Amino acid sequence: MNIASIRMVDLHGQYQRLKADIDAAIQQCLDQTDFINGAYVRQFQRDLATYLQAEQVITCGNGTDALQLAFMALDLQPGDEVIVPAFNYVATAEVLTLLGLTPVWADVDPDTFTLTAGTAEKALSNRTKAIVPVHLFGQCAEMEPLLHLANAHNLYVIEDIAQAIGSRYTGARYNHQMAGTLGHVGCLSFFPSKNLGCYGDGGALCTNHPELADRLQMIANHGQRVKYRHELVGVNSRLDTLQAAVLTVKLRHLEEFNQHRQLAASRYDEILGAIPGIRIPGRAGYSTHVFHQYTIRVADHKRDGLQAYLHEHNIPSMVYYPMAMHQQPAYARRQYPDGSFPVAEMLSRQVLSLPMHTELTQREQDYIGSVIADYMARQQ
Ligand SMILES: *Cc1c(COP(=O)(O)O)cnc(C)c1O
Question: What CDD domains does the record point to (predicted)?
Answer without folding.
Answer: AHBA_syn (cd00616)
